[in-house]
Design goal:
There is one protein chain. The chain is elongated. Helix content is 48%, strand content 14%. The chain has a six-stranded parallel beta sheet, sandwiched between helices. Helix 3 links the parallel strand 3 and strand 4. With 215 residues, it is α/β, with parallel strands linked by helices. Helix 4 crosses helix 6.
Amino acid sequence: MIRVYIVDDQPIIRDGLQYMIGQQPDMTVVGLAGTGREALEELRRVPADVLLLDIRLPDMSGLEVARAVTSRSLAPRVLLLTTFDAEEYVLEALRAGAMGYVLKDLPTSELLATVRAVYRGEAMYRTQAASWALGRAVTKTAPVNSTSLEQELLTDREREVLQRMAAGESNADIARTLCVSEGTVKTHVHSILQKLNANDRTQAVVWAFRHGFVQ
């Protein structure tokens, strides 16, 4: 069972999420909170796998809660749920260690699928602002001073491809822009995913940003 803890200051939202998740055969709600401090205190005692967290709370921001939670051992994976599709929030969510950032108007089936994906460890940054923010974040490979890193550095061409992946371009779009074949782009994408140990394009961009491979 995926143990979900819900934090939202609106009772109707909390109750709705609790009902929706409670209907799933593979999920259970282990706690509810209306404030950040209440959630942080209870999560010291209540084991959870996924923290479904509103970004706007009355006592502290969801981003502050995310930073506090992810700094703990055995922390739940954080999925931020918000009405604000803003680039600054996306970047702060990445820095706070959140695994996902989605909007509250997401269809029920997609939200449930996102909870499951975050539980599996997949990064889920799927909003319009996330695409823009990640595209601008992927500007260059950061200096690597540690020989303990297992991942290889990306080549210049792979960084170009990763930038365009982050901007939401298809393989065909990237091929036209870079004046190469679509097959060549597919090869670059495959190489990037392998080097960053990512399952998909979004995971590649988020992983690279969070681990300092891009700035």
